[in-house]
Amino acid sequence: MIDIFFILFAILAIGGAITMITAEEPMYATLGLLISILSVGGFFALLNASFLFMVQIIVYAGAVLTLFLFLLMFLNIKKEDLPHEPKKYMLITLGAVLMIPINMLIFKALSTLPNIDMVLVESDFGTIKALGMQLYTEWLLPFELISVLLLVALIGVIVLAKQKSKKEIKQ
Amino acid sequence: MELKKEEDLSLGDSVLVTKLDTAVNWARSYSMWPMVFGTACCGIEFMSVAASKHDISRFGAEVVRFSPRQADLLVVAGTISYKQAPILKKIYDQMPEPKWVISMGACACSGGFYDNYTTVQGIDQIIPVDEYIAGCPPRPEAFFDSLIRIQEKSNRESILEKDRQHDRDFKGFLDA
Amino acid sequence: MEFAAVVIIFINILLAVNLAVGTTPIMVWWERRVSGFMQGRSGPNRAHIGGIRLGGLVQSVADMIKLAFKEDFIPAFIKHKMFFIMAPVIMFICSFLTVGVIPFADRLVIDGVTYTMQALPIDLGILWFLAFAGLSVYGIVLGGYASTSKFGILSSIRAIAQVISYEASMGLAIISMLIVYGSVNLSDIAEYQGGLLFGFIPAWGIIMQPLAALIFIVAAFAETNRAPFDLAEGESELVAGYHTEYSAMRFGLFQVSEFAAMSAASALIVTMFFGGYQVPWLNTQALQENINIVLFAMMIILPATIYFFTQWIKKNNTWVDENDPRAKESKILIKIFKGIAIAVVVILALLLLFGLGTNGTNIATAMIQVSTFLLKFFLINFFFVWIRWTLLRFRYDQLQLLGWKVLLPLALLNIVITATYVLVLGA
Amino acid sequence: MHNKVYEVSHEKVRETILNLKENEDFTLLLDVTATDYLNYPGHKAERFAVVYILRDSTFKNEVIIKTMVDDETLTLLTISDIYYAANWGEREVFDQYGIIFEGHPNLKRVLNHHQFVGHPLRKDYVITDGQICTETEDLMDEMRPLLKQKGYEEDEVMLLNVGPSHPATHGTIRNLLAMEGESIVAATTEIGYLHRGFEKACETHTYSQIIPYTDRLNYCSAILNNIGYCKSIEDMMDIEIPERAKFIRVIVGELSRIMDHAVCNAANCVDLGGLTNFWYIFNPRDEAYEVLSKLTGARLTNSYTRIGGLSYDLYDGFAEEVESVLRSTEKSIDDALSLIARNKIFLDRTQDVGIITEEFAISAGITGPNLRSTGSPRDMRQDKPYYHYDSFDFDVVVGSHGDVYDRMMVRFEEMIQSIRIIRQAIKQIPDGSIITDNRAVALPPKDQVYGSIEGMMNQFKLVFEGVKVPKGEYYSSTEAANGELGFYVVSDGSGTPHKVKCRPPCYYALGAYSKIIENTMLADAVVTMASMNFIAGEFDR
Amino acid sequence: MGIKTVKRHGDTLRDKLYIPAIVSGMKTTMRHFVTNIKDNSNLITKSYPEVQPTDITDRYRGVHRLTKREDDSISCVACYMCATACPADCMFIEATERTDGVDEKMPAVFNIDLLECVFCGYCVEACPCDAIRMDTGIFSFVADQRKDFILSKEALLANTRSKDFSDD
Amino acid sequence: MTTLLGYGTIAIILFSIGVIGVVARRNIFVMYMSIELMLNAVNLLLVVFSKLHQDMDGQIIAMMIIAIAAAEAAIFLTVMILLFRSKGSLDSDLFIKLKPEINR
Amino acid sequence: MSNELLLASSVFVLIGILLSAVFMLTTYLGPSRKKGANKNTVYESGISKPVGGTNIKFSIKFYIVAILFVIFDVEIIFMFPWAVNVRELGYLGLGEMFTFMALLSAGLIYIYKKKALLWN
Ligand code: SF4
Ligand code: SF4
Ligand code: SF4
């Protein structure tokens, strides 16, 4: 059962990713990424990291990608605004050809790791409660830093955006 | 009115199709979602049709759709001027099949007493009409009578028949 | 897997599917009839099959069949046909999935094995709801975007901005509930609410956290695009919004998913704030212990209700024209109801006579709880309809301001208070 | 009783009007129209005359300025920079008569479609000469300059057509909006979708045959139009109608006003998304229609008045039935207000939205509730009382901000005032006949027609020739539901009018609409439109 | 007589809280709901095809009819008065000699196009011999073809005064 | 299949695709999304290892990465808007020459 | 992840997909698609040839709202693990979270101050 899901998610994730890098229209690229991200979320679920699975869907799929989509509609990118990429497919193939040996190398290295064949299935692990306990005891500082980072991002965005709107008024 | 045409029903006399026809026609007749093309006084009287006293919802037809894509019944209520004609035509064309048209009131049916340079002398010069209602404006009751007649008419159709006959033959002055 | 497990999973899925899709015609009917009565008119009452109208419920069936057999038209100017086709499907599946996590009854113990009464027995029920409610916005966006209609695009933008403005407050409201319940599992949450506060008030979410309940309900309205937040399809401005170019069942699917989302929202509201499947003052244990008394009480209450109901039918379900098949409906209905009443009484009497056994008691309890849940569910639905026909629509920016400037700070404040209170009291 | 018509030469007319506005306080331009004197008995001078009707700020006096237009050039100087209202007024004259106003910012057709050739109200245009329109105009010729003036490029905004077939515009108004996001940067309004040639039709029908046509002007309150028209003809002929007729006219007129306001407020609530109010407000309306139907023989298009009086007397039990209508109206107003009056959502949606300032309203020729909502207590019923309106105890209702909220509340409150008037009038109604016995005006009673040869002859004469109105021109106005409804009639002494021009109150309000909604949001534009009560039959005629 | 300024709500705290006003609105809708569901006869709705309208009196301008004299012959004398008075021009009358000696003329053709007719009642008012009336009480006339709306003399004669009306 | 090797392979493939996207495409939007994809691949590995070692830290780091990615997305997209509005294109080559213009 | 859960969820998802497929397949039941130039035009209040594309120049405020949402969403997600552990984490956790929320509110207040949410 789990294997079926694994294969399904693998196909979706890779398919989505390939759609993303090959798509001409940003809209399709975004949806490709969405599928990819949802499948990665699926992997999380298979790995019992259920909370992370939710985080993936809520934050990545639900918020960040919505933002992307929003931006696309916002900018209303037309065909002529897209960069002209005549050699796109060639470059991608080239990249793929280059990446395969590197991948093989990593793959080799990976297979020498201990426990490599351990099946990652059962066990109750990754519940929100356990995660919370660890996060709020051992990861105190990074957690607070994250909040500072978010605050900075927020302020940064507003400063940037406001700057633009002032300019618009002047026009 | 000849609604059933022989050749269209070549496979159509099977019991299954007849049963299905009955069911679909029943559903269609009780789910006439109107698109009200109300322009003038008749449009105001159509408001009374929707108001509590007369209450069009009894017939399941209170789901007034403003997008022609979701409507089944075009109610033309009010005077149609030449300026308005292309719009009416367009709305009618944009409606998906099967569709019915009620022409409500003297103006829509024949121009009424506006026999002049600006009024279309009957919307049947532009689009095919299934039901005319006389009156200026017709009473809400008259509208219900024609709605009931449309319901009966829709019961005489077959799902095998793709185009309705009067549509096929129709040619208005805006059809190039 | 055992037979019992399969049956229970099957039943749960069936319940959830019914809640998501099966309730749509009922809710449409509910909406039309209730609004009719609120406005002093009768609402749909003519559609009938052989005279049977079921108070207009048949009308919804007619609508569904009509939509299925209507011409489904995809205009040629639509560039992204795929998006156009996918949009309603995405929206439907997202709304559909949200219903899966609702517990319909307490954990059922059969032969010593415990089964969770959820179609999707996952732990993170609430997060699941949040996630898929957020994802369903893709449906609206793609629909509006693919339609290439200006109304559609405007509506998509409104929809995104609206959903995202309220998801934050909704999340915060949920957090303050979690502080109280100490779990994200909806089954746990519902179980918790079986307790009593100060010994006599049911410990329902709405009583413990009225503010969070209010915020959550408002946000749920916004997330499901219901009035007064139905800006995305605000008819007076945007014609039909993102589904302006949709026809036939594609449009129908949008409607269905809207109602499924509403179902999910009301089911969640019931679970979080109105005690879920809990019968007030009778939690699962109490129910199981006193099952005989409960059954006996039901034996009296049910026929009595049916009696009053038939009286009402006799008085109100009339038809002017004697010869119409519809005129005979009342008699048929009354007969059916009387039959039901007798059957129920007989069954209950038999059960009481022969005893239930442990499994039987548990199943009976579960059934009572499912009915309680459904009852509450429809009451919340009624509330949705009631609100819709009372209030006006917000304006776009006012809605956002309400979300960001009123609900969000309130929710934050609520969290602070709740957390402090819980800790101080707990310490 | 004829009001004075001042003739001014066409070089002087602009100066005169400017002078009148600045020094004589004639701040309101009621109407601009023209007369084609072709075939007018005894007319020798130039063919066209342009007529300006002005009103002073107290609403007590009006003045008519007439100027003959040079046949060669057909050109006049525009006054659209003096009065905002002249913008559309002059456009209409250009459309219907082909008179060119020099300096007008945008002189194009307004009522007829853009493919129309010729000018229909000229006497030599054949009335039945219809012209097919194959497609709608794109309106960019109006939009482009506007955008330029605002400093926008054409592709920086979204151009959205709201109407004609749109739930908010009731099928007859088209707005082309240039939008940036949700806010409107520029707007143009196009009308004429319901232009039915009322004025041309009047020229081929007798004076009394016109009454059914007036029903269809503001079809929400047909009787008020009947009254307005008949009153102007009666004034023109200098006949008094019987007292009883006056009181009945007041009663049914106010009843119509209630219904008109009800329709407006109900539609407004629908546009605000509060659908239930629609049914609450409409409930008494159907009752009122029943009363009117029993009284006049038709529900909506009553054609109740006749020149010189009324067509039917009250029926038995009228007073009680009206009282019950009034009671349920009061109840429905209460119900509707309980849903909205204090609801913050409603208040946010309506307060300070679609604001009209008093100054702008006057300049744009906006009258009636829309003007009163700005705080200006101008009501023809009190400023120039007719039919003993001055003897009734009622208040003129004014608002304070001129926004959507004020307009709605003013309408609700005016409904209540109308109820007061009706109650008083019903008490005071005298006995007597309902139509004058002047046989040159009114048809003889039926028994006389059947019984006496004299009556028969009278009937023949009136039916075949119509009521003979003395030669001349005349403007008279009443307070209709939407504001000042005026009729400017030119008679050549025969039974058919040479020209009838209706001064529809909402034509000018609509002309100002695109200015009012600038820089508001789409949703606001919709409610603003609903709150100003644009009735297509009236502005398009 | 005076000037009344409308009240402006929204400044009080109660108004700003949203909830109280919403609750009072909900009370109103609920009140209607409860009264109507308790007893359906409280509904304003009239079930039309079964329940007929009540405002049709003999003043009501329904479909026309041509009256007959006592001897069952047509009253109309083809004087064209009605056609002249008709603003919609929807009457078509052709006169012919009357041979039965009752009068000089009678209509050979008397058509009314009900689709054009605006039901103003002017024809009735104009008729000098009470030959045309609109008191049939027929308030609804629908058909699916335009020619069905042209009522001929025979059809008009066949219409009768509505039985519901009292004799005056 | 659901072994470390299996998950590892998927993660590597996703990562590689991300790399290719960044290198091969000139559409700055797609480039950015490729980076997001790489982050996801890393996250996946983190979670796998966390599971392997039965230690929560991997998941917590993954969560932090998601948070940082969100913050980054916010800033990045804002800059994109500004650039796109001033430049009207999504070509990454254009942006390279842009440096002095940003501060304008 | 247990097999049961997987089974249940896959069945549930499958039913969802199946249902939407059924709904979609009804397309073929309806009447034929009548081609027509007019029918294939976009609905815009019945205007023959609407001008201008669907390019919407949104106000930058829309965008700010979206960003705001992303950031708040992340913050909320971080609060969930805390919320279920409030009792266990005790006052330390409380203090931690209050600091976090204080920073969050600071951002919010900054936005209010900057009037980034106000239209007009
Ligand atoms: S038929 Fe009569 S009521 Fe209807 S729109 Fe025409 S004039 Fe108005
Ligand atoms: S009712 Fe009026 S329109 Fe009809 S035939 Fe008589 S006069 Fe003509
Ligand atoms: S109906 Fe009366 S008016 Fe008409 S032609 Fe006959 S007699 Fe004359």
TrEMBL record, chain A:
Top-level enzyme category: translocase
GO cellular component: a single term: plasma membrane
Gene Ontology molecular function terms on file: NADH dehydrogenase (ubiquinone) activity; oxidoreductase activity; quinone binding
Residues in coiled coil: none
Subcellular localization(s) per the UniProt record: Cell membrane
Keyword Nucleotide-binding: no
Main location: membrane
Enzyme Commission number, as recorded: 7.1.1.-
Membrane-crossing residue ranges in chain numbering: 6-23, 30-51, 57-77, 89-110, 139-161
Pfam families with a match to the protein in the record: Oxidored_q3 (PF00499)
Reactions the enzyme catalyzes: a quinone + NADH + 5 H(+)(in) = a quinol + NAD(+) + 4 H(+)(out)
InterPro entries for this protein: NADH_UbQ/plastoQ_OxRdtase_su6 (IPR001457), Nuo/plastoQ_OxRdtase_6_NuoJ (IPR042106)
Topology of this chain in the membrane: Multi-pass membrane protein
Function noted in UniProt: NDH-1 shuttles electrons from NADH, via FMN and iron-sulfur (Fe-S) centers, to quinones in the respiratory chain. Couples the redox reaction to proton translocation (for every two electrons transferred, four hydrogen ions are translocated across the cytoplasmic membrane), and thus conserves the redox energy in a proton gradient.
Similarity field: Belongs to the complex I subunit 6 family.
Protein name from the UniProt record: NADH-quinone oxidoreductase subunit J
UniProtKB/TrEMBL annotation, chain C:
Database matches in InterPro entries: NADH_UbQ_OxRdtase_su1/FPO, NADH_UbQ_OxRdtase_su1_CS
Keyword set, alphabetical order: Cell membrane, Membrane, NAD, Oxidoreductase, Quinone, Translocase, Transmembrane, Transmembrane helix, Ubiquinone
Membrane topology field: Multi-pass membrane protein
Location (main, coarse): membrane
Reactions mediated catalytically: a quinone + NADH + 5 H(+)(in) = a quinol + NAD(+) + 4 H(+)(out)
EC number: 7.1.1.-
Source taxon at top rank: Bacteria
Subcellular location: Cell membrane; Membrane
Transmembrane parts of this sequence: 6-30, 83-105, 125-147, 159-181, 201-222, 259-279, 291-309, 336-357, 363-389, 401-424
GO cellular component: plasma membrane
An example Gene Ontology biological process: aerobic respiration
One Gene Ontology MF term: oxidoreductase activity, acting on NAD(P)H, quinone or similar compound as acceptor
Purpose of the protein: NDH-1 shuttles electrons from NADH, via FMN and iron-sulfur (Fe-S) centers, to quinones in the respiratory chain. The immediate electron acceptor for the enzyme in this species is believed to be ubiquinone. Couples the redox reaction to proton translocation (for every two electrons transferred, four hydrogen ions are translocated across the cytoplasmic membrane), and thus conserves the redox energy in a proton gradient. This subunit may bind ubiquinone.
Family recorded in the similarity comment: Belongs to the complex I subunit 1 family.
Assembly information from the UniProt record: NDH-1 is composed of 14 different subunits. Subunits NuoA, H, J, K, L, M, N constitute the membrane sector of the complex.
Protein name, UniProt field: NADH-quinone oxidoreductase subunit H
The encoding gene: nuoH
TrEMBL record, chain E:
Organism (species): uncultured Sulfurovum sp
UniProt domain 4Fe-4S ferredoxin-type: residue ranges: 67-96, 108-137
Key word Protein transport present: no
GO CC terms of this entry: plasma membrane
Tagged with keyword Translocase: yes
EC assignment: 7.1.1.-
Keywords from the named record: 4Fe-4S, Cell membrane, Iron, Iron-sulfur, Membrane, Metal-binding, NAD, Oxidoreductase, Quinone, Repeat, Translocase, Ubiquinone
Coiled coil regions in record: none
Residues the entry annotates as binding [4Fe-4S] cluster 1: 76, 79, 82, 127
Gene Ontology MF term list: 4 iron, 4 sulfur cluster binding; iron ion binding; NADH dehydrogenase (quinone) (non-electrogenic) activity; quinone binding
Pfam families found in the cross-reference section: Fer4_10
Amino-acid positions noted as binding [4Fe-4S] cluster 2 in the UniProt annotation, renumbered to this chain: 86, 117, 120, 123
Name the UniProt record assigns to this protein: NADH-quinone oxidoreductase subunit I
Catalytic activity from the UniProt record: a quinone + NADH + 5 H(+)(in) = a quinol + NAD(+) + 4 H(+)(out)
Quaternary organization: NDH-1 is composed of 14 different subunits. Subunits NuoA, H, J, K, L, M, N constitute the membrane sector of the complex.
Membrane topology note: Peripheral membrane protein
Cofactor note: Binds 2 [4Fe-4S] clusters per subunit.
UniProtKB/TrEMBL annotation, chain F:
Top-level taxon of the source organism: Bacteria
Entry's localization field: Cell membrane; Membrane
Alphabetized GO MF terms: NADH dehydrogenase (quinone) (non-electrogenic) activity; quinone binding
GO cellular component, as recorded: NADH dehydrogenase complex; plasma membrane
Membrane topology of the entry: Multi-pass membrane protein
Coiled-coil ranges per UniProt: none
InterPro entries, per database record: NADH_UbQ_OxRdtase_chain4L/K, NUOK/Mnh_C1-like
Enzyme Commission (EC) number: 7.1.1.-
PANTHER family recorded: NADH-UBIQUINONE OXIDOREDUCTASE CHAIN 4L (PTHR11434:SF16), NADH-UBIQUINONE OXIDOREDUCTASE SUBUNIT ND4L (PTHR11434)
Protein name as it appears in the record: NADH-quinone oxidoreductase subunit K
Organism name: uncultured Sulfurovum sp
